[in-house]
């Protein structure tokens, strides 16, 4: 198919070249011509589709470097919340906690645990022993956008040693490294970990550095949900630096932020550490969603020992009044090396965003403190009750941050945009609106960045970081992943109160040369691919 986009303002994704008027010609899945003389004849019979780009900006398709569509891609292959905000490519397998690889003996317990993060589905077979199997299943689902699958550290640990919280033996480490190397050999992009989640939480710095020593040979990236985003955040950043220093890998901090008003004074030191890393020659970047509040599974409020062994053992412990008393004490006071979400963020700032049972539908959108008042209980008991009654499949929104920090991070050179979007009955608005909000609020309204700088942070920068071939830029010969946006109207519509609202201002989207969004509506086309390096 041949398409002409006529008279559009083109932003190439480099962050260096000023926007300019051009005609864009798409042939097949590639950009065949960028004509800044704008002499293409729109009446020519060679063009099967002609779009008048007057008043619109053409950008490379947006790249979401931290996504959680691993399960949803099977239930909704169009991935409407992503497609309709201009995302043409995303990176799954995040936080070290994903669908594959998954040993047969842990399928059911892992599925329960993962449901609070990535959701659950009956539309596919959960028995993915390898990432190769999972990638093929995603291909068969025919997604509307491109997906890149990272290697999840927690799953590697499951394969090598199950839920064992101890340090890995040399044999365990060798097995994990071999699985990682095998995927990198097949074009994988790198390794992820989530040091708030089992079993990744049991890993020490030495284990992570040893695993990451495999990455430089393949130019792979280590994406890390840090050990702390609150009281111990300085030590957590220093750990990232130590891992990169020891292994020689490139580090990428997931959803970078600091939580808790009492930790805001640490922000300047966080920025100093980023500067020191650069001066030292370490390659450390980060992604960020443009909101001062986040989202995760409610099970993270429990102390690590309480979730040891997986979802079934966690639920069994919640049946013991004695163990519940111990959990409550740890949730209130913390443990060495673990502060806990209740202390980091405050129980009044933890809002329930999804449940699976009708009996708990009344708590959606309410904080643990509000629910405790309604149920004449305390927030810690309420959290344990909800986790037990929902069998661990329950998500929360966390109000943690400061708007000024969001702005300062956006301006950092290490930053690129992400959604970290979880799918649930009452999701975080970032799932539907991160990218349009970034442009509408922070670029057009507040002028934090130029349009050229902003487009680089949603496209070219991510493509460079992950060595994504022939994507992320509007160049002749590159894949035709293109967004046409209205710079005057683009913005998010999703709110905390009403989060399932599609954005405005994303007029047209092309994925691999095929039109997936037309005048803000999805066409039903599903031309996405599973990408490798």
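Sequence proposed for the structure above (533 residues):
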């Amino acid at each position: 198919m041949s398409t002409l986009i006529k008279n559009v303002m083109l932003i190439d994704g480099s962050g260096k070249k000023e926007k300019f008027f051009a005609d864009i010609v798409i042939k097949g899945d590639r950009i065949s011509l960028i004509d800044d003389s704008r002499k293409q004849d729109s009446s020519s019979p060679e063009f099967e589709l002609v779009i008048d780009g007057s008043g619109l900006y053409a950008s490379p398709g947006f790249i979401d470097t931290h996504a959680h569509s691993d399960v949803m891609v099977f239930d909704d292959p169009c991935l409407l919340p992503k497609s309709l905000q201009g995302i043409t490519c995303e990176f799954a397998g995040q936080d070290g906690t994903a669908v594959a690889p998954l040993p047969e003996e842990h399928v059911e317990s892992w599925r329960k645990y993962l449901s609070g993060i990535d959701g659950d589905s009956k539309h596919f077979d959960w028995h993915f022993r390898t990432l190769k199997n999972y990638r093929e299943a995603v291909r068969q689902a025919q997604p509307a956008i491109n997906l890149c699958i990272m290697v999840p550290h927690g799953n590697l640990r499951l394969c090598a040693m199950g839920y064992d919280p101890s340090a890995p033996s040399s044999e365990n480490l060798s097995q994990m490294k071999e699985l990682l190397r095998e995927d990198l050999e097949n074009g994988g992009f790198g390794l992820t970990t989530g040091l708030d989640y089992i079993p990744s939480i049991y890993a020490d710095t030495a284990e992570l550095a040893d695993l990451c020593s495999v990455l430089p040979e393949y130019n792979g990236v280590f994406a890390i949900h840090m050990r702390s985003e609150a009281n111990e955040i300085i030590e957590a950043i220093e750990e990232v630096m130590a891992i990169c220093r020891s292994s020689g890998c490139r580090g990428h901090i997931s959803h970078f932020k600091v939580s808790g008003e009492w930790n805001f004074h640490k922000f300047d030191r966080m920025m100093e550490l980023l500067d020191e890393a650069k001066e030292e020659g370490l390659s450390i970047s980060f992604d960020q969603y443009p909101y001062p509040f986040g989202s995760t599974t409610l099970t993270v409020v429990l102390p690590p020992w309480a979730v040891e062994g997986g979802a079934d053992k966690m639920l069994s412990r919640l049946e013991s009044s004695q163990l519940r008393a111990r959990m409550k004490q740890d949730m209130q006071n913390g443990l060495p090396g673990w502060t806990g979400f209740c202390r980091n963020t405050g129980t009044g700032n933890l809002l329930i965003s999804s449940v699976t049972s009708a009996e708990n539908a009344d708590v959606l959108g309410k904080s643990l403190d509000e629910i405790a008042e309604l149920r004449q209980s305390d927030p810690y008991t309420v959290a344990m009750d909800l986790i037990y009654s929902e069998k661990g499949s329950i998500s929360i929104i966390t109000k943690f941050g400061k708007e000024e920090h969001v702005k300062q991070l956006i301006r950092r050179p290490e930053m690129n945009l992400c959604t970290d979007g979880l799918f649930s009955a009452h999701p975080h608005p970032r799932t539907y609106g991160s990218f349009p909000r970034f442009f509408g609020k922070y670029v057009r309204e507040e002028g934090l960045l130029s349009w050229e700088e902003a487009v680089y942070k949603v496209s070219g920068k991510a493509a460079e970081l992950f060595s994504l071939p022939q994507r992320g830029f509007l160049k002749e010969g590159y894949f035709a992943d293109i967004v046409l946006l209205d710079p005057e109207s683009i913005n998010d519509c999703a709110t905390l109160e009403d989060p399932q609202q599609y954005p405005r201002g994303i007029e047209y989207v092309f994925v691999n040369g095929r039109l997936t969004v037309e005048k803000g509506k999805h066409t039903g086309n599903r031309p996405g691919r599973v990408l490798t390096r």
